[in-house]
């Protein structure tokens, strides 16, 4: 509104100027050689209301618009700097507004225009000098750094700096502060850059995590050092300790970028900031919490990896893929996807549903509003908002009225919702859901039963459970083969005539051996990427009886084994026999 008021005021002054000098005056063409004395020369400038020089008119308009913009900025900036708007806006308005047309008209134009510029610039730069003395260097305007920053922004951020600042060293990376309004975020970013070394250390840490494919870093602050641990392929690996002083500065930068309090070292804090690196854009999160020995910080950098689209890409063997497709392609029933928390359930659901025939069958489902899970093509999802009072079972009932062939509910959190889904699964529709389970498919079965639905309705609807755990793949660049003993093969249940060699991670060099550079592919970890170990429970009448009569883990596991279903260990041994992973790795995964 303030800018509109200045604009109207300026247009009014301009109208007065044009109306007062609309005759053959010298407002815009002041010269002894006028159109009256030389009509042929000035014929092109003749208008109904006088003679206007377009070049001088454009110059006046440019100065006028500069005045509108800067005076509006002064009016908005004064309250933020706790300066009196009356003391600074009024001089900026009237020094130029009341003298502009007089200076341009009453004296020769060139001299008048210079004086008009002075009438605009003098009060403006007096204000700029005053407010710059009250703010931090990064908040000052019309300085060399500010002008360079503005020019870089106008050029799309591609303008190269003449001299790199200290914070601009290290990996080429764009960082933006988040967690507050734009002005506060900009202030936090500039404040973080005041610690240039620490700012560069943050950039180097992000680049290191991306290179090593580490999704999380845990920093445990003690009295003198900071222990660094990296989460790579689902396993925490120790890193090189850092000194406390430099790590404190780095943590200050991290907290500033997230709009957190750097001085708070006991209470829990969390936030995010933006990073663009290697062509990828992600929001990195920081969570800090005081501990008995100091402070623990979890720094998360979402590593963007290639999406897995098929069950085969997850590591599932072809025979099992066909069995899974057969169960999911049934005309009715309930199929459950299961995995550990943060154990690949999202990917399993996505690839599993992508393997169904969604072109021949009409799929629909419900999802919580704001869910960040990836959508599956050709599944019509209806979103609901519990905060707005939406009831999921009511939303699902509305979806069912459209007569879909199959239904998908990612999370079931109430008996009422589960009851609606079971009615459809026991009727004419194939239904899909997912659940977290730590151990195996049998636990997934009981997790859903714990929602207190009738066991007989649940067991009659259930036709299959697909459970997965993730293990690390051996790095093909540095894995070592070895000859397994007959006793080892017998213990693993592998026929000796079927496998001649197995693989393991590289043998560490001895104390007298020359040091070798780490593997370029895995960085010396010995593993690169992960693969799924799958358990497919095909539910038969024996398993259904166990669910109804003896709903316990051991009873359901026994019934599943009797039905001919393979357990996780059997599938894991297949991965060892084919050289995909190591004995040590499956031992670790199965014992967790």
TrEMBL record:
Parts forming coiled coils? none
Q: What are the UniProt keywords, alphabetically?
A: ATP-binding, Membrane, Nucleotide-binding, Transmembrane, Transmembrane helix
Bacterial type II secretion system protein E domain location, by residue?
202-588
Any one Gene Ontology molecular-function term assigned to this protein's record: ATP hydrolysis activity
Q: Identify the GO cellular component terms for this protein.
A: plasma membrane
Residues spanning the membrane? 55-75, 110-128
Pfam families per record: T2SSE (PF00437)
> What InterPro entries does the annotation carry?
P-loop_NTPase, T2SS/T4SS_dom
Q: What family does the database annotate?
A: Belongs to the GSP E family.
User: What is the protein's name according to its record?
Assistant: Bacterial type II secretion system protein E domain-containing protein
Q: Which organism is it from?
A: Bremerella alba
